[in-house]
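no rush on this but wanted to send it before i forget. theres a chain ive been looking at and ive put its sequence and its fold in token form underneath. please have a look and point out which stretches look like helix strand or loop to you. thanks a lot i owe you, the record is right below:
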Amino acid sequence: MITIYGIKNCDSVKKAVKYMKAHNLSYHFIDFRETPVGAEKIASWLQKVSITKLFNTRGTTYRTHKLKELGLDDAGKEAWLAKENMLIKRPVIEYDNNVLVGYDEALYNAVFKG
């Protein structure tokens, strides 16, 4: 089962959903705003992807909370991800014991069609 985590109005999430539909792949969507993920889920993702890949430093949430000025270490970043899911780079896709972060059509083709 493919699980997509994100928010409905995110362009990258929309592209991932469109990809799944175009390739007849069934998926389950979890909206961070309706069902926030906690520290346990984030820790499980971080066993498979780096904090650099998962932590979004380009979004408004990062700027609004002035997180650059805090000089967070990896543990600090992980704590913020659990506290504020909008800092998670989107989409996050769980599939077959893998975690994919962001929209990457070439990677999707390799994983889902390979």
About this structure: The helical segments are 11-22, 39-46, 51-54, 60-64, 67-70, 74-83, 105-113. The chain has a mean pLDDT of 97.
